[in-house]
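We close this part of the discussion by returning to an individual protein. Part of our work consisted of pairing the sequence of a single chain with a tokenised description of its backbone. No coordinates are needed to read the tokens, only the vocabulary itself. The amino acid sequence and the backbone structure tokens for this protein are reproduced below:
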Amino acid sequence: MRLDPLKLTIVSVLGNMVPVPFIVLYLKKFADYLSKKNASAAKIMEFLFERAREKAGPVVEFQWLGLMLFVAVPFPGTGAWTGAIIAAILNMSFWSAVSANFFGVVLAGLLVNLLVNLGLKYAIMVGIVLFLVSTVMWSALRRFKANLSS
């Protein structure tokens, strides 16, 4: 089954982005509505929000760039939906949240596409390198931000 990687990437990016505007716009309203109707739903929503807050460190620190890079990392628990939840919880502006999610999804799609086409051995090596690069990048961004604020 030979599928066109470009078409697959475009479809996956668009499919991933479909719920993002709705999450950013309506998540808090939906959570408030559910919380008023059902105590169990309130506990579930609070759990969901708490998990998102735990992951929101880079986004709180770097806003748009932090959200875009958070979504761009193709690891479990990151991605557009979690990024949209974090943006909604942090009250980011709609266009800022959607654009950061979009560019993050595009980068993640390109990375996954690259890794799939490299093969398992090279994909594992690239994954390790990406993890190390992202760790160094966050440290450098934090130092840069500290230097700007001092």
Summary: Residues 5-118 form one domain.
